[in-house]
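Model the whole thing, not chain by chain.
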Amino acid sequence: MDDNNALFKVFANGPLEVSGNFRVVNSAGKIIVNEGPVYLCRCGGSSNKPFCDGTHKSNGFPD
Amino acid sequence: MGDPRNRQYTNGEITVFWIPSKCIHATTCFRELIEVFNPGRRPWVNMEGAPTRRISEVVNKCPTQAIIWKHNSDLTSEELAAQRHVTKYEENPETITENIEQPEKPEIVENSTRIKPTNIRIMKDGPIVVEGKFKVIGADNRELKPTQMTSFCRCGDSRSMPYCDGTHRKVGFTD
């Protein structure tokens, strides 16, 4: 992955895929995941935030 | 400078400059000091809400320098001319605020043989703030403009997808 650490891939009408060398820190400052790929919710409707749970398919999330 | 949206605010001692084009809505300022930085109010910066030392401390934490500060004695003549309102903040212990739920920055273990991982912060009721070296591929499979820091929308309502534009506050997005 040349000299980039993390790779973000925006899925149309879907989540944000994160892979590579990264770590996800929650609002309390705790590292919650540091291995990919992970899928972060972009639609605002997931019941498993910050992760995607597929809700974007049913809540009509458009980009 | 030059952007008509830029603003400056003073308490007579220091001046805080607001450069909205640089803001990625990391929300550091108002999580730390809502008495001064309150996006729900107009003007959104109240220089009388806290002592100078506390204001400069929080301004220094802005990750993008969308807010910066200067001592008034260091202002250029142009900046002085732009000064709208000058009120001396009066020291009052009741207005000195405590930290509001500021996430601790995790310890970064520096190791010369390993590349520092990209830091991805989930802001409470807010965006995904990314710092470090990274690449972003858009929904159309094209690489987006490279930056060292950005914030992705989590509320689903931004008008500048995939990035945050601050809309989460208007729509009342919660985790």
